[in-house]
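[Q] Does anyone have a clean structure-token version of this?
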Amino acid sequence: MSSPDSPRSRDRALAAALHALMSLIGRLPLRWLHAMGAALGALALRFDNREARVTRRNLELCLPELDAAARRLLLADALREAGRTLTETCRLWTRPQPENLRLIRAVENEALFRAALGSGRGLIVAAPHLGNWELLNQYLAAHTPISIVYRPPRQRFTEVLLKRVRQHPGIRQVRAEAAGVRQLFRDLKAGGVLGILPDQQPKQGEGEHAPFFGLPALTMSLLPRLLERTEAVVLFAYAERLPKAAGFRIVFQPAPIGMAGSGREALAALNCGVEASVRRVLPQYQWGYKRFSMQPHGRRSVYDHAGPVERDV
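[A] Here you go.
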């Protein structure tokens, strides 16, 4: 049993305090939460904080076809949507799963999901940082047991919090580590379901650079490896936020051909699937994430300077 002053006890206490705060915020109506989130996004833009600066740079890098005025409008929209993701997640993490699921108004391409579950081949749901992936997790778990892969965060109290708020029926959380990956292979071969964030930048040695919006992005090799060794079906999915706090729409999309394997072509196909989803709901992508921070050897960080960058991979 750990002492009250031990690091483990402090982590639990901090996680409990954050959960209590989120519970208070999460009691507010969804329209109020979205208004609060939009206000946070406006403040980020007004004071040009880190989130705003990274979002601006990513939009410059990924959408060079837009003129300056269009990018400014998209920047403001993206920051408001990022704020809404933050505030509405307080609700999704602290209210009962059935109550959260009542926010879903429609499911696009649900037949693809049903067919994949019925195939018995195993299913990988590739869920980019788009819309609200926490609600998507709860929707999936309401229909089938699912293993959610995650990378352990740097702060230990964050992992304590994540384990608590994601403890919904049907969800099993799996660390992206050797023992967990071996279990994932076994689960998929037995017809299980896996949820994975395909656009999360892996550690060095756990992926290769492949084009994403035409730029070199260190891309995880885990998903293509899982496909190479199993007969699993892959679907891309996200929970799109509807206007005026009307709720959410779950969207399933078929995966591009060629995602299985260990070569760069498989990673490029994976990124094409992510990009296709993102382009459908551009403002709701997590543009504040430094997706291109780890560039190929010899290239300086795209976030350390302005202007064009090398776009070949």
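[Q] Thanks! Anything notable?
[A] DSSP finds eleven helices and nine strands in the chain.
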